[in-house]
Every structure is written in C-alpha cells, then in structure tokens.
Amino acid sequence: xxxxxxxxxxxxxxxxxxxxxxxxxxxxxxxxxxxxxxxxxxxxxxxxxxxxxxxxxxxxxxxxxxxxxxxxxxxxxxxxxxxxxxxxxxxxxxxxxxxxxxxxxxxxxxxxxxxxxxxxxxxxxxxxxxxxxxxxxxxxxxxxxxxxxxxxxxxxxxxxxxxxxxxxxxxxxxxxxxxxxxxxxxxxxxxxxxxxxxxxxxxxxxxxxxxx
Length: 212
Hints:
The chain is of the alpha+beta class. The protein has 8 helices and 7 strands; from the N terminus they run ααααββββαββαβαα. A hairpin with a 2-residue loop joins β2 (about 90-95) and β3 (about 100-105).
C-alpha cells in the first residue's frame, strides 16, 4: 500500500518540479487561484486536484493542507458554517510567529487567502464575514468548527485516495462548533453592498454558486 507520506514521491518528474515551487502559503494559494472552480458534487483528493487541475472549496482546502505539510506545517483544516442558505467553506490553516493565516479555493474573490496576522481563529474567521454572502445578498456566515488535523486520516491515505473524502466531511460535521452571532445581531444585519457583491463574484463559475 502506498503511504500518504509518499504524495510527492509518486508524482512524475515534471509534477515534482511544479510541486517544489509551491514552497510558501502564498504560492500554494496562487496555484489554487490558477485552476478552475469545480461545480461538480464529487470530492477530489489532493493528488487528483494536482493532476486534474480543478477543485472546489473542499478539494482546495485539502490540497492546500497537503501542500503545507510538504513545507513543514501541520495539515489543518477548518469549516466555516453558514445560516443554511449558503455553502459551508473550508480553510487550510497555517501559523507563523504565533499568528494564523489561511488558504482556500473559492468561487468568491474575498473568501481565499489570509496573511498570518490573526491572533486567534475567531479573528481569522471573522475577517471573512463581510465577504461571505449568497446570491441573494445575505451575509451568511454564522460559525466555525475547531481545527481538524488531517494526520488522523493518514491511515486512509487521504492525500492520494478519494475513498476517505466522505469520511473527512463526516468528521467535520461531528466536531465542536463555535457560533459567532447572537439572534439580535443576525436580525440587524444589512444586505451586502452592491459594489462588494459584484466584485466578489468577479470570474465566478455560475454553475457552482449556491442557490438558496
């Protein structure tokens, strides 16, 4: 059985050369930004993302976590939770000098990279609040999960096998969650500004947008 730690080793020479250039969180994000957003309902493991050059937010976060592990970071992901009228959104987390940053694949411009400047995960997640909205111009972010370390799925070869993707998704549904807003806060939310709405959807794959 091929072990997940051999992700890099099972690539061909050209693929290894490309992967070697993803040597920083920013370069990993740039790779994700360079490939199309998938509107398919299937999950792709990191190896498939790298080879097929397509991903949605779940696939992209797992790819980023795998790529981060190649440069010395723990493969951590976090799920941001909406109000039931939007998709959830996964982040790959990394830490530098004690501060959190994130990498993500998104159909929305504002839901991608974050520099490692946030003192807490709550701060990091809240930085996405204004950009986290649906096509009805509703601000939909409501909470987030605790981080999930994907090393616990090494025995399932999560980096190179699609078979355990559903298992990871299920685990994200089960782990502890933190709410961000009170009912009073939610009731007082304003609609998304028209300019922000249009700019956030620049270049989006319309087929991949959530329909409330």
